[in-house]
Amino acid sequence: MSRLIPGVLCFCLSGCASLAAVSPLARLEKSLVYQPSKYPEGNWQPIGLDFEDAHFTAADGTKLHGWFLPREKPLAVALFCHGNGGNVAMWADALQQYHDRHGLAVLGFDYRGYGRSEGSPSEAGLIMDARAARKWLADRTGVNESDIVLMGTSLGGGVATQLASQDGARGLVLASTFTSLPDVGAEHTPWLSPRVVMVNRFNSLKAIARYEGPVLICHGDADPLIPIEQGRRLYEAAPGRKQFVAIPGGGHSQPRSTEYGRALDEFIASLPIPAVGDSS
Fold it and tell me: Which is it for strands 35-36 and 85-86: parallel, antiparallel or unpaired?
């Protein structure tokens, strides 16, 4: 997400979103908002990480890839949506922590155009990819799709929130997530009217208001890219049971704190228990 702000600013300076799909300026926004790393960039054989390769296909035929960390009798089955940069191989430590420390059976996956996934990223495409990943995870673990916990960091929080608002979820966990992409631009360059000119929106504030399930939101109070106020606005808009964890001195891309870890354990333990099969 550290490269998202330059993308927002460059596109705002371009001015005209009405050209959208055919404009080279729209292509510039896309290339700067989405910062994929393609295979083989990254460590694809991390030592000590026991995972299965997951292969699945989005509704439009795009072939996708992810890593699944199975667990017998998990506390929850979770889908993890990563940020706008890199690929799943660069999130190995986070996946291992969710599995080992928090007792989750978890699938991390790459959006179209990232890692080993085919295609080219777009707002609609990323949501479609998350839906396909969730279906694969439900089939693999034997749980209902609505009983999967959706987790997202930064841009991935926007993806997870859209999916939860449309289809529901057992729980929604957000870290360093924005109210919308144009709101991020407006925080830094309000005079350039990013709320008018940007093509990619990811309106998380509107989406979270439609999700009535439990929510955990974590945000650093020193985040220079997405101010903590945006996280608080998401919290205020969520209509269901919710918790907000402010990380003192926390930036944007730093590892989650012990406060977050404790809150996540408590959040998972508080969720209604679905009929979970053996995910080993």
Answer: parallel
